[in-house]
Design a protein that fits this description.
hpI Integrase, Chain A; four-stranded antiparallel β-sheet
């Protein structure tokens, strides 16, 4: 069932010797057959739709719990994903200049910084990604099923991020997968896309990474496949050389 979404996109770090931990070495890495086992272990339409959404689109759990019914476009087969990133900015209490964590004196006014002012910065980003027909069907079945309950709000999954983690962990235990967390599903899909040769920029858009360096981790995790392709190239060159030599002889 995962193949529908993988087919959608069928159509070395430069200059820096950076050591990157391969995704397959990270805690919680999954194999494709484990995902199907995980989906089969769900016991109600909500859990099945939730796990399928994470596994087949690669969205973050924070994005899944903010998904609204109006973000689902069944006709086009797309989801509109909104991502909110928050960070704290430190400012000089005297002149308002931005500060680093280790600044003892303000680079703007030169005064000694006693206690820096803290300002919360929020950055919203939005992207549209494809979703396969099987997952759309599960979402529709879930939304029909939940009409029996009091909640009538716009959110597709009206629960907290912590509750989402608990659901995935509980379903994982039921499927015999210990220590499972939602990001494992994202890792799996991203690695599969990279293995299929998806362009890095497209992979970055699908995953919603602000920094392409983060996306490159998944490309680096496919290094073994790159090595095999490299070896095949030179094996074919050897065969061509041998054939040429035989012809001359």
């Amino acid at each position: 069932m995962l193949r529908d979404n993988y087919r959608f996109f069928e159509k070395e770090r430069k200059g820096k010797m950076t050591q990157v931990t391969p995704i397959k070495d990270l805690k919680g890495y999954l194999e494709p057959e484990q995902v199907e086992r995980l989906i089969a272990a769900t016991i109600n339409p909500r859990d099945k739709a939730f796990v399928s959404l994470l596994a087949r689109t690669g969205i973050r759990i924070s994005e899944a719990i903010k998904l609204k019914t109006t973000d689902i476009d069944s006709k086009r087969g797309t989801l509109t994903i909104t991502h909110l990133k928050e960070r704290m900015r430190l400012k000089c209490p005297h002149c308002g200049e931005s500060l680093g964590k280790k600044h003892l004196f303000c680079p703007g006014c030169g005064n000694k910084v006693g206690e820096a002012l803290r300002e919360k910065i929020q950055k919203h980003s939005q992207r549209t990604i494809p979703i396969d027909s099987a997952t759309l069907l599960l979402l529709d079945e879930y939304l029909q099923w939940r009409r029996r309950f009091p909640y009538q709000g716009p959110l597709v999954f009206p629960f907290t991020r912590q509750r989402g983690w608990q659901l995935v962990e509980r379903i994982g235990r039921r499927a015999g997968i210990a220590g499972l967390h939602p990001h494992s599903l994202r890792h799996l899909l991203a690695t599969r896309w990279a293995d299929m040769g998806l362009d890095v920029k497209k992979l970055q858009i699908l995953l919603g990474h602000a920094d392409i360096g983060t996306t490159m981790q998944y490309v680096d995790s496919s290094f073994e496949q790159l090595r095999l392709e490299y070896e095949k190239l030179w094996e074919s060159k050897k065969d061509e050389t041998a054939e040429t030599k035989e012809t001359k002889d």
